[in-house]
Amino acid sequence: LNLGNAPQDIAANALTATLTLTMRRGVRRFWFEKGKLRLVGLDNGKGPSPLNGLLALGKVKPKQVKQGGADSRVLRDLVKRCVVTEEDVGAGLAHQMTEFACDVFAWGEARFEFADGEPADDSFTTSQLDLDVRLPADPVIMEAARRMDEWGEVRKAVFSAEEILLLPPDRQPPE
Hints:
single chain, 175 residues, alpha+beta, five-stranded antiparallel sheet, 38% helix, 17% strand
C-alpha cells in the first residue's frame, strides 16, 4: 500500500485517528482530527519544536534566542519581546510538522497501523494543540512527492543521507 494513500483516506473520510509508522530507524505518529493533521509524535513521545521551525523559516535568528530554557519558555519570551507573534509560532510548528511528515516518505518500507479515536497522551506532546495547527493532508503529500522527485538529483551531490554538509566558517555569509 502506498504511504500517501493512508493520509488521503483519513482526510477524505474526515477521520479522527492515529497513524503510526514503524521502521528500524524509529517510530513516527500522526494524529488526525476530522481529517486534518493536528499532532506529530516522535520516537520518545515528544513533538516537533516550533522554535526550530521559527529558526528554519528565518523568523528568528539564533542570536535572538536566549539559551538555557525549555522551548516553551523561550517561545513565550520571544512573543513577549515582540520578536514573533503567536501566529509565527504556529507557522513554525506547521513547518516542523510538515518536515517530519515528509521525512517518512523517504523511509522506504515501513509498517503502519491505524488506531481510531483520540490520541494516546504518552505518544505526543499535546501542547501542540494549543497552537491550533490543522494541516490538510494533500499539500503535505504533494510536498513529500516533490521532495522524493528531487531527491534523485540531490543524491548525486550528497555523500550520505546521514551527514549534514556545512560551509567552513571563513566562507559563511555574515548573517
